[in-house]
Structure formats: C-alpha cells, structure tokens
C-alpha cells in the first residue's frame, strides 16, 4: 500500500512561494494531501490538489470572528482536517473542544486527522501510552478517522523516537482502534529512511520539510519506494 503523505504548512509561505510550490509539485498533486495556511486553500483546490484545513471551529455558522467552519471548508472542496495538533492544544484546544470539533468535522464529511502525542516530560515519566490513550478517548467511532502520532518533543526538533518506541506506540493505537496511523515530527530526507523500516506506519505528516518543494519531493520518493 502506498504511504499516505500529508504536508502541514502551518503559518508559513507567502503568495509568491505558493505559486512556485504549486508548479513544482504538479506531478504529485493527486497523491499527497496539503494543509496550507487556510487563506491559500483555494489556490491548491483550483489547481487540482487534495487539501486539508489546519483547524476548524466547532459550530457551522454564526458570529465567531476569525473562525472557519467544517461546513464552509467542505463547500470549497476541502476533504481533511487536522484536529488536536500539539500547537493547537498549546493554544487552548482541550479534549472537550477537540471532541466537538471532531463531531462537526464528521457531520460535514471531512476526514479527521487526529494528532496525539506526549511531551518530553510525559515521556520521561513513562506516561507516553497513558497520554495517548487519554487523547484517543475523544473518539466516538473510527469511520473517517486517521490518527497521527506526533510526540511534541520531536516536532521541529530534528529528533525522532527510536524504532522500538515507535512500533510500540503504533501497535498500541492500532490495538485500541481500527484506524490508519501516521507519524509526524521531524520527518525529513534523513529521518525518512529510518521511519520506512516501521512497516506498521501508514504514512507521514510532514511540517518544516514539506515547505521546500525539492526536499519534499525527495521524501515522497523514498516513502513510495
Ligand atoms: P515538523 O512538524 O515536521 O516540522 O517536525 C510536524 C507537524 O507539526 O505536524
């Protein structure tokens, strides 16, 4: 099975970069899923890319300045949404809100990419699986759910978990829920080869290394070998 490849641009790239990016990744656009900064979504959609939105609000419509709903995203052609990313959890998304966002996403036929993962201190305390179990407990079913294991200490840090740890976590998630599991956190041209040894992984969510089209293509090529 070909690995699922997702790119999380976060709040990066400007409009000129986007035009270049769209050109460079033309040959891959049907087989990767890009989560650009939301104002750029229409550029990707109009060019035939598969896209996801980095965040949604829990309600469909109303007086919520600055928010975007799952319903609005779906109507312009978005099919995926990231929920529970550690950067959003740090901004206040708790499990209660995450549950409501998941409900809204599924009601609007978006596929949810639920991000879970421990912090450095939780890992040191041996609490990795406990934390993941709690973060997964928001799930009320598994249809249209993909889980991305993203240890917070690895994101943007050039460090990835050992193969043994990764296997343990991925097996744990798959034992608890019948879902596809991605890995996210410092996936780059160096780490991808090691990650490819973990057969249980269904794909990758790539942040920083997905911003540079050339580097991203190199990663995709290794992941699809
Ligand atoms: P990174 O981010 O690849 O830059 O570590 C991954 C993510 O936050 O999804």
Core attributes:
about 15% strand; about 220 residues; single chain; alpha/beta; about 40% helix
Q: Give the termini distance in whole angstroms.
A: 11 Å
What is the general shape?
globular
Strand order of the largest sheet: 1-2-3-4-5-6-7-8
**Would you report the number of β strands?**
8
Roughly how many Å is the radius of gyration? 17 Å
Poorly predicted spans: none
Average pLDDT over all residues: 97
User: Could you estimate the helical fraction of the residues in percent?
Assistant: 25-40%
Describe this structure in words.
The protein has 225 residues and is of the alpha/beta class. It is 38% helix and 16% strand. The protein has helices at 15-24, 41-46, 70-76, 86-90, 95-107, 120-124, 128-136, 163-176, 191-195, 213-223, and strands spanning 4-8, 32-35, 50-53, 80-83, 111-116, 145-149, 180-184, 203-206. The protein has an eight-stranded parallel beta barrel. The protein is globular and about 45 Å long. Bound molecules: 2-phosphoglycolic acid (PGA). 2-phosphoglycolic acid (PGA) binds next to β8.
């Amino acid at each position: 099975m070909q690995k699922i490849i997702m790119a999380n641009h976060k709040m990066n790239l400007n409009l000129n970069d986007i035009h270049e990016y769209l050109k460079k990744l033309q040959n891959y656009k049907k087989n990767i899923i890009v989560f650009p900064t939301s104002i750029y979504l229409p550029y990707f959609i109009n060019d035939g890319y598969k896209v996801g939105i980095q965040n949604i609000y829990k309600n469909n419509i109303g007086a919520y300045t600055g928010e975007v709903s799952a319903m609005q995203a779906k109507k312009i052609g978005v099919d995926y949404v990231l929920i529970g990313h550690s950067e959003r959890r740090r901004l206040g998304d708790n499990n209660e809100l995450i549950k409501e966002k998941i409900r809204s996403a599924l009601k609007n036929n978006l596929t949810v990419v639920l991000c879970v993962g421990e912090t450095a201190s939780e890992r040191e305390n041996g609490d990795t699986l406990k934390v993941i179990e709690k973060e997964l407990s928001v799930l009320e079913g598994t249809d249209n759910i993909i889980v991305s294991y993203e240890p917070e200490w690895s994101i943007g840090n050039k460090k990835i978990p050992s193969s043994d740890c990764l296997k343990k976590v991925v097996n744990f998630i798959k034992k608890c829920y019948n879902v596809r599991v991605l890995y996210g956190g410092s996936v780059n041209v160096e780490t991808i080869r090691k990650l490819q040894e973990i057969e249980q992984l269904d794909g990758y969510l790539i942040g920083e290394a997905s911003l540079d089209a050339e580097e991203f293509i190199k990663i995709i090529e290794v992941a699809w070998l």
